Amino acid sequence: MAVPVTASAEPARRVSARHFVRLKLRVMGNNFRGQGWRIALFVGGVLVGLWFAAGGFLLLAAPGFAGEPRYALMTAAFGGGLLVLGWLLLPLVFFGVDETLDPARFALLPLSRRTLVGGLFAAAMVSVPVLAMLVATTGLVVTAGALGGWPAGLAAVVGVLAGLLLCVAASRAVTSAFATMLRSRRVRDLAAVLLAVVAALLGPLQIVVLAALQDADWDRLAGVAGVVGWTPFGAPWTVGVDVAEGRAWAVPVKLLITAVAIGVLLWWWSRSLESAMVGAAGATPTKTRRAPAGGAVAQLFPKVLGWAGRDRFGALVARECRYWWRDARRRANLITIAVVGVFVPVMVNLGGPGFAASEQGVEFTGDSSPVLVSLSMLFVGVLASVTLANQFGFDGSAYAANVVAGVPGRLELRARMAAFSVYVVPMLGVVSVVIAVVLGEPGWIGVAAGALLAAYGAGLAINGYLSVLGAYSLPETSNPFAMNTGAGMAKSLLTLLSMVVSTAAAVPMVVAAALLGDAWLWLALPLGAAYGVGAALLGSYLAGDVLDRRQPELLATVTPRR
Predict the structure, then answer these.
(1) Rounded to whole angstroms, how far apart are CA atoms 346 and 263?
(2) Is 358 helix (H, G, I), strand (E, B) or coil?
């Protein structure tokens, strides 16, 4: 990567990975200084991570305690593969990635690409998720040692460390590449469609897997585990079992496969990282457009907002609509909503014991109901609205414009809810129709839509409060999945709190579906829509007063610290 500076490149040769690690620890310490809530969240994150790590350790060590080499291979291959997939997908959908060291900060320094990628990679290893995963995967070492003695245990240690490097490299490469892709408007629509298709396939895939497990052939599964063990998903995790079963020759081959995969991922990351630093991905030729008939003011309003008045409320809605469409971080959340909206209803209504394998294939043997549909739609509506739990964090220091302009809190929240709903409500409508058609019950469209709108409106109300009282800053970076140190735990807790309270607020829709019977098929849509709209308006009214009093504090909270 060529860096246009005149300074001598000699100092860059003395920069090593340990300097990046020390820099990250220093930045983390500065972020925690005087921020008691961040320290508490960080400690809480460590405890939660260790709790999950302990559970993973017991699961991975169980075959060794039981003395079952066949189950040890399946546990290592399938469990390790799930870990790699988790590191690939979870940062995109839920947690984000810790970018305490923003790559863009190094753009003007005389650092080679190899030095920068190596240093950032080493710094990424210093995190709570990496520590938790290291503790969990130690269970593979216990299993290998119990089955094959210290040589197998030693091979498992090397494999676990290689697998850990693979997971971190995969996570950073995918999030960086997807961030670059989201900044390109030419491919963002394709990305959204592809993600929605992948999410739609998860439900049917789960059905097929559950049906197959009812009459599982464990010998065949062991064969599949052996195949997975020769892929990058399972290669590093199965080397200890190979030594225990007398296949020591496979260890160098599998470690070579893992090393090649890590090298390819780091190369991929370096390419997208350079693009993020110089901003090449977002550079597109400017096209000259003729001004619309309404003049400059009309040009600020998207066509979809023809109904909005040309007043302060309409201007705020138009601004937020453009932000949701153009900001990579917000677009990433919209794509997540599309993924969840497809996956959750399929999983709840079509998954589980209601399906069985037959000679003709997989058949539906269970019965869904308006209550079950309402329950699944309730979760979809709640998850759709949880994005606004930190809506002011998206603005960052730009929120100062609203503070200076003296925008009333109620007007601010209503405008933000309306702009977000322009994109989300059509998604919810599509989900309602699709789930009713898939279930073969077109008459349940109103039930699904009513529960969705009620849960979504209740979620808007709850998240209006949370966004004012529990906001946190987001890093100023081109990566939409980046999080500050400790913010990942804050996001998780805020999301959990929002979901619990919003679900409780929308439970009356499920109760009504259980009590009213067939009458609910006709009442669900109008009552659900009225419930949702009323909840959203009430939430904006009450939270707006709190926002008026907390505008300066809110601005200070969401402004990123240098």
Answers:
(1) 37
(2) strand
